[in-house]
Amino acid sequence: MRADEILLSAQDLSVRFGGVLAVNKVSFELRRGEVFTLIGPNGAGKTTVFNLISRIYQPTGGRIDYLGQPLTTVPPHRVAGLGIARTFQNIELFEHATVLQNLLIGRHLRHSRRLWAELLFLPAVREAERQTRRKVEEVIEFLDLQHYRDTLVAGLPYGVRKVVELARALAMEPRLLLLDEPSSGLNAEETGDMAFWIQDIQQLLGITVLMVEHDMSLVSRVSDRVLAMSQGEVLALGTPAEVQAHPGVIEAYLGSADDASSLRRAVA
Amino acid sequence: MRFIFKTSYDQDIALAKHGGHRFWYGLLLLALAAAPWTLDEYWLAQLTFVLIYGIVGLGLMLLAGFTGLFSLGHAAFLGVGAYTEAVLAAQGWPFPLSIAMAALLSAAVGAVVGLPALRVKGIYLGLATLSFAFIVEEGLARWESVTGGNAGKMVGAMQARIGDWGWTVDSAEGFYAVCLLLAITCTLAVLNLLRAPTGRAFVAIRDSEISAQSMGIHLAYYKTLSFAISAALAGIGGALYAHKIRFLSPDQFSVLQSIDLLLMVVIGGPGSVHGAFLGAAFLITMPQLIALVKDGLPAAIGQAPGLQGAVYGLVLIAFVLFEPLGIYGRWVKVRTWLQLFPFYRRGLFKRQKAFQKSDRLK
User: Fold this and answer.
1) pTM score
2) Is the ipTM of this complex over 0.85?
3) Is B336 on the interface with A (CB under 8 A)?
4) A103 touches chain B (CB under 8 A)
5) Which side of chain B, N or C, has fewer Cβ within a 10 Å radius?
6) Based on the structure, what is the number of domains in chain B?
7) Which of residues 194-233 of A touch B (CB under 8 A)?
């Protein structure tokens, strides 16, 4: 694989919280333009890997390189500026603001910011606001959010909030999108929509997607490659079908044949 | 019910969203401009106080209502502004310069006080600012060579003259005009800020720090900025206050004053610019109302010491229980009722509780 095909690479990534080794020597490479999924049982360390990439946690070992540059020395608020956007497992929207305002905040970095100009609202600021709005409207149209544009987030149903959070991340015009359980809390229809959108994001917008997901039907529909984790360690890496067939993965999810046999009742 | 047909993005950027806004705010401006001719001296003075406190409230609103950082020590910024103005005015600085200096000095102090805000939140931040307010109050009392200590300090009339040329504001009407002008300027500046990226960053920090950070918002910078702007507005208010009261003593900037200021924001309506001025109006008119009602009450209640404090407390509790969005929130409901008549539903403003906030990363 050529070096410029790699967007992000993690080598021997480890993080320890006190006595718990949450992530243990995890290595993977993210190719440009692919959908890469992390799966694994609860507590496997998937979200921790996310928080390491978005620099909320500091790794205790190993390194993360983004576009060939080390990411572990970048302060958290600069990560967005590198083109990495993320969503959260438990939706972290700005509750007391409208959908539109949420998306506008998403474009914070794309907006020139000079305090004096803003206090006076100079024509340059007004023009920048129009530009921002135009870009935000593109995202609103892309994700079909026109109907909710002026609604307060606090009053929206869960499924729509999930889409708004995705929209806010897209408004940042990222190169890499981190989706933390995009389908959690969604019904079957909404999950189907989410799958379409993830495919569109990959194919139409050319954004690389790294996601954590439990819904295996969604995973096999959209992912190019899957990494299975358990207890902070890599179990398997490959196409969705390969990973699902991997004995270690089955064991991590279902327990081994020995564990199961002890539960089985003797045939009367 | 008004339906706005939107045909351009500028309609959402504009401060006045429709003709109704332009009409009513225009009328309000006219009424305020005509006040020196229509109100008697006493009520004009009260209105001047409302404007001064409104400016201070605007600052605290930006900090507490829009950035989500509570300050229990805002009287200290008011004090810094007031004493700066008093000292500079005594040295003959023209008013525009001295008030700018008062704002800048307050802002600098605000930025320093904002430093704990980068580390502590909620009630702990309240305590940090509270202790800062004690330090400032004590400092004002002890630094006698500059502040006059507990004996107090006289403040001269507002003036801006170089040699023979310039003006002195010694009439109540003139002073009112200056306050009105400054209040309008400050309000416009805050409104401008709120519709620009900086204001949105403040709101983002208020609602979710973790996701604000992942949007690329530099938390430390914006929190410090919010403290600085908030303190600058308090400083401007303080400078006007100094000229209005004409006599400063440290006990005017005590913790009670800080609590009054916070009360103003909570009762006015947290998270709304209107709330700052509505709260100020409440804070100024309440003592008058109590004084009016007092004589009609039985002596045991009417003449009891601490009546005002008790009434304030009761009103605050009532607002927290029944109208957390303050006077402005109540007004929005009344307005909606009028707009929708007769179709207003009782549950229209009920929000379902959200139990899906993730555990905040500390």
Assistant:
1) 0.90
2) yes
3) no
4) no
5) C
6) 1
7) none
